[in-house]
Amino acid sequence: RVEHEDHVGNKGVIGPGGVQWMTAGRGIVHSEFPKSKGDEMLHGFQLWINLPAKDKMIRPKYQDYQADRIPTFQSPDSKYSVRVLSGEHRGTRGPIEMINPGLLLDVRLEEGAEFEQAFPAEWNSFAYVYEKEGEATLGGKPPAERHSHVFDNKGSTLTATASGTLKFLLFAGRPINEPIVQYGPFVMNTEEEIQQAFMDFRSGRLMNPDVEIVT
């Protein structure tokens, strides 16, 4: 389990299969603390998604989703399943609404599975394979376990097959096509904006309580 707390007043604990979704916006001070019992091993993923310049100063938000709130698509032949976190797969839509249109799927293939996902051809996409046993293909190539695989955006359909087990997270989204400047926890468009972000943090402006709290 993982516990979240932030300066806005949000608190939450997610269990196995749960998701924390936080939009930092103009700034949020937060902590994520493992709540495992005894010798339990905690495995998780952290993904940072950039915001367009016009949305970087929106109010911060936080929401957690327990596993039972994330819809799952099961293929008719029961050879693969997809937990749909954001976007859509074969009519099953995820609960997370991204500010910039995107797709986030947890895909699990078993022996003999054939998976296919369509999205706009201009979107960027990549996958992270977190478990693999036996032969498999992902985007037409053999994937490596515990590696990210970046796909070109020359087509609008991604395919995957497995002769054993293949589990991966699939991410896709519309390119923002803006400059990125990152330093520490701040991601902006220019060096000047990064300096301003540090000034806001040091002066306490970032801790302004006039923010939206999502419960």
Automatic annotation (TrEMBL):
InterPro entries attached to this UniProt entry: Pirin (IPR012093), Pirin_C_dom (IPR008778), Pirin_N_dom (IPR003829), RmlC-like_jellyroll (IPR014710), RmlC_Cupin_sf (IPR011051)
Domain Pirin N-terminal: residue ranges: 2-49
Domain annotation Pirin C-terminal: ranges: 105-206
Domain of life per record: Eukaryota
Family the entry assigns: Belongs to the pirin family.
PANTHER family, alphabetized: PIRIN, PIRIN-RELATED
Full protein name: Pirin
Organism this protein belongs to: Chloropicon laureae
Species classification: Eukaryota, Viridiplantae, Chlorophyta, Chloropicophyceae, Chloropicales
